[in-house]
Design a protein that fits this description.
The complex is a heterodimer. By secondary structure, chain A is mainly α. Chain A folds into 2 domains: 149 residues; 128 residues. In chain A, the strands form 2 sheets. Chain A has a 3-stranded antiparallel beta sheet with strand order 1-2-3, with no helix packed on it. In chain A, helix 11 crosses helix 12 and helix 11 crosses helix 13. The longest helix of chain A has 24 residues. Chain A is globular and about 75 Å long. In chain A, 40% of the residues are buried. Chain B has 7 helices and no strands. Chain B is elongated and about 60 Å long. Chain B has one domain: Four Helix Bundle (Hemerythrin (Met), subunit A), CATH 1.20.120. By secondary structure, chain B is mostly helical. In chain B, helix 2 runs antiparallel to helix 7 and helix 3 runs antiparallel to helix 6. Chain B starts with a helix and ends in a 5-residue tail after the last helix. Classes of the chains: A mainly alpha, B mainly alpha.
Chain lengths: 316, 145
């Protein structure tokens, strides 16, 4: 039976090495000091633009909020996904229930690295896989703007996720696959400035790809089908293809896209719907220059056919 | 007697056939609505010239369209399946659905009553209506491929 002992011994060693490796690889990684030094005191007025570009209020305000209530970031929306239900937390300035006690470094680590002040991973339902592409100075500006918003007491309920997704540490491995600060669409240096600016807004703070790009089995966005549309990860139905590929918005002009983001009307005499309604209300708060930049970028992204299956037409 | 029963049932059948497809009926009304609002939005934005009389005619057409939008007739139970993008929440929260539709109708009526005198006045009204479109489509429509 010596061979069996050896085999068991070897299995234990392999298991231990695997566990240690997994533990090391899954460790939360925070920002380096060089990045942290770029977090000079921010400007609240500039941060307001980042706040709306980033769509913070769409998930963190109480569902159905209108007007100034959208600035009360108490959390509580339920995002029902195949992984379970995610509940965006209170990010108001309440020092206990919200993030009023956070430093600018805390916010930067949360948004750029998906790590909480206590050193835990956040779930990527918080779209830091996109926010990771943001400039540290924009985080500092956003921090300054968030400081101007009200403190609202009350903790949102926690997430309810199925095994193995309820193990936060596992997200560290996910991050190794999907987290980075590099742009998705490579653009030549000679690319018009508006397209570059649009890329930053769409791929970074705007996090458009989080809903408009199909995901692989592990929940990472498929960069080869960037913005091709997807089966809705949350709720039901589909999220449209916003490339110029078949089924997409190739027929829309840049002016059409910018107008849609401003007014909610499509060139096909339809209106904005679903989760995009809140997004469009955020986009309406941006400047015409920013909306035009987003439009210019969307016309420049590689075209893809729809990233979701064709509709099954059922007989009445 | 038997003939009478047959005749009545034939009539009833013919009658129901004429209104057999609430899905097509409501889609036609929404298409018409979208066209009118889209046209007005162009004027409000300044892409097309403002003509007070023409705008008022269009607003009145919009009101007629909204008044034809009878929720009970157009969204009967069972019309949630088939070739439709109507969301299940319509039937789960019929009162909420009717409330957003009523608000829209009230906003259209107010626009007609105000008879906008310039593009800016029209723009404020179109913004309100557009917001109504979004509010309803946010909760009560499911985008499909």
């Amino acid at each position: 039976m010596a061979w069996l002992k050896k085999l068991v011994g070897a299995a234990v060693v392999v298991g231990c090495v695997g566990a240690v490796t997994g533990w090391v690889l899954s460790a939360p990684v925070t920002l380096d000091t060089q990045t942290l030094t770029q977090l000079a005191p921010g400007d609240a007025a500039r941060g307001k633009r980042i706040f709306y570009a980033g769509g913070c209020t769409s998930c963190h305000a109480k569902p159905g909020s209108q007007g100034d209530a959208r600035l009360r970031l108490v959390g509580g929306l339920e995002l029902k996904t195949p992984f379970g239900t995610f509940v965006p937390p209170n990010i108001s300035q309440d020092p206990n229930d919200g993030i009023g006690a956070w430093s600018v470094e805390d916010l930067a680590n949360a948004m750029l690295k998906g790590v909480s002040p206590s050193g835990e991973h956040f779930y990527p339902a918080f779209p830091y896989a996109s926010y990771a592409r943001m400039k540290p100075s924009d985080i500092a500006d956003l921090y300054a703007f968030l400081k101007t918003l009200p403190a609202v007491a009350g903790k949102a309920p926690g997430n309810s996720l199925a095994f193995p997704f309820n193990i936060r540490r596992g997200i560290g491995l996910w991050k190794r696959l999907y987290l980075g600060d590099q742009p998705v669409v490579a653009l030549a240096d000679s690319t018009p400035e508006a397209v570059m600016a649009g890329r930053y807004l769409v791929e970074g703070p705007g996090h458009c790809g989080e809903c408009h790009t199909p995901r692989d089995f592990a929940g990472g966005t498929k960069k080869g089908e960037w913005l091709a549309g997807a089966v809705a990860a949350e709720g039901s139905g589909i999220v449209p293809n916003i490339t110029s590929g078949k089924g997409g918005i190739g027929g829309w002009s840049e002016a059409d896209i910018a107008n849609y983001l401003e007014t909610g009307f499509t060139p096909n005499f339809d209106s904005v719907g679903g989760a995009m309604v809140d997004v469009q209300r955020n986009m309406a708060e941006l400047t015409a220059v920013d909306r035009a930049a987003i439009a210019a970028y969307l016309k420049a992204v590689p075209p893809h056919p729809n990233g979701y299956p064709a509709r099954q037409k059922t007989a009445n | 007697m038997r003939k009478l029963v047959v005749a009545i049932s034939m009539l009833a059948f013919a009658g129901s056939a004429a209104f057999a497809d609430p899905i097509l009926d409501r889609q036609a009304l929404m298409k018409e609505r979208g066209k009118i609002v889209g046209g007005l939005a162009k004027v409000a934005k300044g892409d097309e010239p403002f003509d007070a009389a023409a705008v008022l005619t269009q607003l009145q057409a919009l009101q007629a369209n909204a008044e034809k939008f009878d929720v009970d007739t157009l969204f009967p139970k069972g019309s949630d399946t088939g070739d439709t993008t109507a969301g299940p929440k319509i039937w789960e929260d019929m009162a909420g659905f009717k409330a957003v539709e009523d608000k829209y109708l009230a906003d259209v009526k107010a626009a007609v009553a105000a008879a906008p005198a310039d593009a800016d006045a029209l723009k404020a009204q179109v913004d309100t209506m557009g917001s109504d479109c979004g509010t309803c489509h946010q909760s009560y429509r499911i985008k499909k491929g």
